[in-house]
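Internal ticket #5521
Category: modeling
Description: The requester needs a full-assembly model to guide mutagenesis choices. All entity lines are attached below as received. Residue total reported by intake: 772.
Assigned to: D.W.
Attached entities:
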Amino acid sequence: MKYLDEYRDPGVARQYAAAIARMVTRPWTLMEVCGGQTHAILRFGLDQLLPPEIALLHGPGCPVCVTPVELIDKALALAARPEVILASYGDMLRVPGTSGSLLSVKAAGGDVRIVYSPTDAAALAERHSERQVVFFAVGFETTAPANAMAVLQAERKRLRNFSLLVSHMLVPPALEALLASPNCHVQGFLAAGHVCTVMGFREYEAIAREHRTPIVVTGFEPLDILQGVHMCVKQLEEGRAEVENQYARSVRPEGNRAAQEAIRRVFRVSDRRWRGIGDIPRSGLALREEYQEFDAERRFPFVSEVVARESPDCISGLILQGLRKPRECPAFAAACTPETPLGATMVSDEGACAAYYRHRRP
Amino acid sequence: MCLATPGQILSIHGDDLLERTARVSFGGAVREVSLACLPEAQVGDYILAHVGFALSVVDEAEARQVFEYLKAMGAG
Amino acid sequence: RHTRILLAHGGGGTLMHQLIERIFVPAFQGQPAGPLHDGAVLELRDRLAFTTDSYVVNPLFFPGGDIGKLAVCGTVNDLAMCGARPLCLSAGFILEEGFPIEDLRRIARSMREAADEAKVAIVTGDTKVVDRGKGDGLYINTAGIGLVAEGVRISPAAVRPGDVVLLNGDVGRHGVAILAAREGFQIETRLESDCAPLADAVLHLLDAGIEIHCLRDCTRGGLATTLVEIARDARLQIEIAEAAVPVLEETRGICEILGFDPLYVANEGRFAAFVAPADADRALDLLRAHPQGAGAGRIGVVSPDPSGLVVLQSGFGSGRILDMLSGEQLPRIC
């Protein structure tokens, strides 16, 4: 497939690994922000290609991992209502709430449906006018324009039975929160290429300057990630801390104006709780006042009574912040497995715990 | 956090900006993708699609720089 | 003349007998076992392979096949994986009240075509009807009997270090063809299910004296799950070259959009064969010369390491360990 296969060439990958090894003079700890990047690193074994001096920490950029347990519980409560069809991306179905997941609610009779696109969720509402369709709108800046478009489409078609349970996160505030924490030892970031395809990378320049940390906007294929690592390590070795764009085939400095416009029209920035990390001010999106009729938390006030509780022996927060490795968790591969996940980082294929469990050596 | 797949636009339909869609080929399999966030997309362009929405046109020239950069490193 | 299944069709009376006379007898006519009543009596003398399976595919009709063809091929293939020559099948139908009779006729006909192609007979059957809303149109349960020739010992326990892993074609086609046909994903594709009977291809190898240690069809969970099961049971390590596993471009396209790994996507006409190294080249040539093996390839080898793991060599790092998924792959956005 064009624009995929050429970036999966093992020979070129080994040349990149050699170029990195030639250049590196001391250990460096980098973080790849996006779960999709984590997936590529583990699927292609890129960590094994890199010289031992380079450590790659898995970042918080995975909606399954950071969606707060309160919102999972609200989705479970809504999905259990007879009048509701709960539409969701496939990623969220196995995520554990306080007790159970969307899959267990479905088995108990809840109408839970997987959608590929938010407009499919709006179409469900159009087809089932007698039911209340609630779309579990999770994701980062990349998915926000599509979720916004579903709202605009529903407004145009005057769909009274469509609403969103919104759990939208923004990357820059999360990076700031990570960098601000005293025991953060991340020295450079591979920023999420598709988030920056939408938002551009201007908003990262202040972070790189202020925290003297290089940030390289990086794609998702093996050669993208290896080039991203090379550019980031080169900056570190030369004492620079700038924003560079490795994924230029998709990312423009100003991003995608039309997509940003769609987000601005429907959403406003809001405070958000991140699972495992805690509350980060102005780190998410919420529906604007003029679109309140599409807010499932307003339409179904009972969901606010949900009392959420995190599993006490899950340290996914520390893992998400790169402060612990999955193997350092006592529950890892014991009480906590992909079949019996305690925290979200064991559910998502991108989650660091699931990735280590799947690809671990005995 | 975002799986976006490159595909080629085969045809474009609809004139209302919000309703404009494209039939996009992903290795031969075809799916309809919304162009609501990519008004400048043309037939024949390669785009990156995420959850049924085109988010960028792949820049042909930039697409080769991953290899040019490496050559420059090799020479350096 | 009824166009839909009525509850009465399951009542054992005239309507049920009409159904049998009009649908099943014509479809399964000329089968050696004679009249259809409670059971077929067979005289057998060799070692017997016996299997059972149920079919609940949605949608019932899909590009490249339907639930009927799937039921026959799936049962035949389970027998073939024991190295058996499939002999006969049973077919139990659980019909939902209101199911169109013309669809049932179509399905019965395609079961007959698949049985003829696999040279097996459908010798006994049963029909039950459930209330509307209590079933998904139609479920089929089958059982199958096959004869295993003397000296044929095919199982994970027979796998030896050095064995070569052969695969008879491209993977992932069935799973994505079904998904694309399922309402809700709107993916247009020319891909068809690879659903096909594999017994002839296996017997083609056995009759040529190929030393086969283990066979397994790669259905739910795909090639990866099949290899993980065998590596565990054989307590040996299987090393697979990812580039050697054929995947059609269109299958990859759909997997990329949905975030699937084609190695974990279901097949219905693919099997992995663990063959003694000395016979590997000959087996591969024989397979490639067979209609069910045109795309066959050598995808890996068994190593003596008792890890019981499957290591996938992607050509990048030192290899990634394949594991079993906890459930079906779900389309993902991240």
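Resolution: model delivered.
Comment from assignee: Chain B touches chain C through 16 residues (CB under 8 Å).
Ticket closed.
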